Amino acid sequence: MPKNQGQRLLFALLTVLVTVHAYVFFSLYVVHGDLFRSLTGETGVLAAIRKLGGVPVFGRPIPIWGVVLLEFILAYTLEILLGSPLSFRLARRLFDPARVHPVLFETAIICATVGIMCPAMSFLASFLYYDYAAGFSLSTLLAEWLKLLCYNFPFAFFTQLFFIQPFVRSVFRLLFARDRAPRPADRQVPACAPEQETL
Is the pTM value of this prediction over 0.90? Predict the structure, then answer.
């Protein structure tokens, strides 16, 4: 776990770097892939995006690397200002980090982060990928946000909990191996005294 502000910023950077690439891939292929293929008549998603001139963002096509960069900037800013501080506070409300196993506390932080960041980023994505050519409607925007949230939340939960965070934490441990203080020995449940036979 990060111990100072510099480490927190680096940890957030590593997390967002991995996460944004996963989400852009998920968004382009799973959420919007069929739409892109039906609009262009192409069989592949990348060919459809090329034919469209890029991914429509604010109604204008931009290249995939532009989408990754834009989402990275938005996600990193949200993670630093909102996601990390609030998720840590929420996890501390439920568990005392000094008294609970670190894995349980880290899992609580991951779940809280997903609960904060997924709705926020899905809402921003609703604005970014909205079909502005058809006109703007608040109810359509909200419906699109809920649809994206239904797609993104399960993906976010399972990828963060089982893939992204374990990977980022492993990389972080390697980077700061000398900086880590040894963990106190895991608390063990005292062994029960053997039952005595009674006759």
Answer: no
- Let me know if residue 175 belongs to a domain: no
How many domains, in total, are found in the chain? 1
Is 172 inside a domain boundary?
no
Which residue ranges in the chain fall short of pLDDT 70?
A: 1, 179-199
**pLDDT, position 183:** 54
Q: Is residue 147 part of a domain?
A: yes
> By residue range, what is the domain housing residue 129?
5-165
Asked whether residue 181 is assigned to any structural domain, the reply reads: no
What is the token pair recorded at 34? 């069929």
In this prediction, residue 22 carries a pLDDT of 92
